[in-house]
User: Fold D-lactate dehydrogenase (cytochrome) from Mesobacillus campisalis.
Amino acid sequence: MNETIERAPLDEKVISRLREIFGVERLLTSQTDMMTYSYDASFETQLNPQKPQVAVIALSTHEVSECVKLANEYKVPLYPRGAATGQTGGAVSTKGGIMLDLSRMNRILEIDHQNMQAIIEPGVIQNDLNLALKPYGLQFPPDPGSANMCTIGGMVSNNSSGLRAVKYGVTRHYVLGMEVVLPTGDVIVTGGAKSKALKSVSGYDLAHLMIGSEGTLGIVTRLRLKLLPLPVTRGIVLCSFERLESAGEAVNAVFSSGLQPSAIEIMDFNCIKAVNMMKPELNLPVDNEAVLVFEVDGAKEEVTSQVNRLKKVVEKYATHLKFSDEPNECEKLWQARKLVGAAVGLLKPGGFRVYAGEDICVPISRLPETLREIHNIAEKYGIVCGIYGHVGDGNMHTGPVVNSSNEVEMENVQKMVEEIHQLAIRMEGTTTAEHGVGIVRAKYMDVEHGPAMEVMRAIKRTLDPNNILNPGKMALPN
Amino acid sequence: MNETIERAPLDEKVISRLREIFGVERLLTSQTDMMTYSYDASFETQLNPQKPQVAVIALSTHEVSECVKLANEYKVPLYPRGAATGQTGGAVSTKGGIMLDLSRMNRILEIDHQNMQAIIEPGVIQNDLNLALKPYGLQFPPDPGSANMCTIGGMVSNNSSGLRAVKYGVTRHYVLGMEVVLPTGDVIVTGGAKSKALKSVSGYDLAHLMIGSEGTLGIVTRLRLKLLPLPVTRGIVLCSFERLESAGEAVNAVFSSGLQPSAIEIMDFNCIKAVNMMKPELNLPVDNEAVLVFEVDGAKEEVTSQVNRLKKVVEKYATHLKFSDEPNECEKLWQARKLVGAAVGLLKPGGFRVYAGEDICVPISRLPETLREIHNIAEKYGIVCGIYGHVGDGNMHTGPVVNSSNEVEMENVQKMVEEIHQLAIRMEGTTTAEHGVGIVRAKYMDVEHGPAMEVMRAIKRTLDPNNILNPGKMALPN
Assistant:
């Protein structure tokens, strides 16, 4: 447990400068406060929480910049943090130092509906932005499962996505520009210093270097986001398949027919079981290996048409099929998918669901074999798990369920996770589709990227010569 | 004219090594060949063609890598080139050296329809790829006007887009990974060395640093592209507006209604005139300031529904309106937009259309005032021009028409271009939405980007310490 690591206290000059920048009320030093900042939603940091030495709560770009300058001058590690809903330890201090809490920089500065843009601070919660956009008939599409809690700054740092990435793409596609505090404390604006253009190819697009860099290259302090029209309504087709392979074929047939669903979700047989345990009235067919939930969106007539086309395509492969283009009925059908993350915990009495090895992605064609192989690995280690995910992207969330008091199980689940990650790479996939690297997947970086890692490290050294920004993550310089 | 620049001949050792790498047949040195490589589609290089000292035609990554290593060893400028359809001088040698022709690395290596991906060499023409994808019901959406000629490597280097970016986004959104030869000659693969995943957040996404870097950071030798389902059919609504402001309001009303057209194109009064001159039977209403052409796509029923919704929204603002969901009729309505690039040349007897100042982008809300202001500037300099473009993105193509034998006009058009670029920046826009910087817009980089330029330059120096790759472009180190 890293809690016991002995660190020399931070230089008193650093503390005193932090006090000047943030005032006494936003400079936190108590051990209780440090404990709060010592983990995120990852299994790893739940097992091994890691405390910063101090935490500060920023309210402005100026404060962030001053804090970074100070950290750079004294070579103190600095860890930016949003809502800490991440599952990789990305927002946790691994080397003591300063935790920089950005969650209160949460103002929506402008909704420019005419220009289909929003200007926000990084601490704005995804769902709060979308609620504010609704009256304008607009949306910010990337929709991680944690949308009710996660900050958009965190989404940008991890290039998050979610259910609807199959139609709407990932966070990257909605960032037009950003204000960034560099590891030197200098402030830049990407995508044009004063631009509100929706499209630009002027210069290197530094936003795209920053997006997904998990706070290792700069701290986002302002975002200019691209918005899309909010679809009028949605339709659902829920269908089940005797064999995984038929589910894969159905997905392919849907794409080949020219349909572009807004979500294509899969749940395996264990998820079906779990959902039925949690909500028996949903009554998902239990003799099936997989359930697919397709969502389409658009205006009423278009949704009805798409639901009908979808039905026609998938009914050749499916054993059972339910559908609707009525909002209330859709909500019910969608419930099965919505509940699954919580439901898998029921697969084992007294068990809890672990977030580890939970984000692999493989080519769609290799999904059936990958799902089977994960269950083989799980069986080998005596672990129960339910698998669900964004099948249209090949992204699967494995949900192992363990009993925390069972030490063997706690060890076995980690071995299982290691094998799942190796499997993903062997299947021409990746260890992480949307959650990120942080500390939990750093060890796979060299094998995934080969010589490209040296370019990443060279860029890190160029922008952060003192390696102060979120050090110890992503297999960058330590 | 730069043709007359005296350069010391390339070191005989360099020539002899190039001969070893490429053989005598693919090492070109004659002045006629050098002339062929001395310009692209920009006005600037038509006025001032710039010859490389030698040109080589690459057929493999190995050859590219060997050539780059050689250039790096002898510090010889190296200019990668695709089809040279660019309008910025980006693919033209400004410092002599070696021209590296990639247009014959044009194999489609794999169409993996199950995984919605294609693996190609950079010299593949956009339209050739889409023809090959059609039987699978798939498409590579980015669609520049030069789609019949331009290479996808060039599109990636410039982050090109086109008519349908308003729905489908830009080239960047379709690059999953790439093989890149770095300025040292080392070869990396971005997005996972062996990955075929559709989504990944593992590591910095170096592809996104390379995309739009105009060949200054690396040479793309292989691309892994994301494909989308090809829509079944399309529908068109063509409408005209007494005043530009009403056209802007119509665009806004369409977005607010939840519609997502696949294209929204604008033509100003001069374009209307020009199109009527070229094709009188189109009979566009001449008493109007603007025509908008909306395209929607999907299955037949959905297109019909969208066309009806569109009509209902825009008829409040428009003076005339035509529409169709029948392919033949749509083709006719689309013609007006298709012809406009060529038609503007008719605005002035004996004139030709110049590609300069042709790619600005402003916030949608400022389009009417920007269009009016461009015509004011044009009038001041006595230049006729037609303006058209992708109004849904705020991207306008100004088409000035001049007589090349009129020296005053040739000077005035350049002054006009300068003012158009300054106007774009003043309107919170950019000098280039999709064509790039190259040499023609390098001088605006510092004003557009401010301190962010220093980060671009630092990255350039890190990856290309000898500044051999496409030097003299984008206001990077010279």
In short: The domain at 9-103 of chain A is CATH 3.30.43.10 (Uridine Diphospho-n-acetylenolpyruvylglucosamine Reductase; domain 2). Chain A touches chain B through 100 residues (CB under 8 Å). DSSP finds 16 helices and 19 strands in chain A. Chain A has four domains: 9-103, 108-229, 233-426, 441-471+474-478.
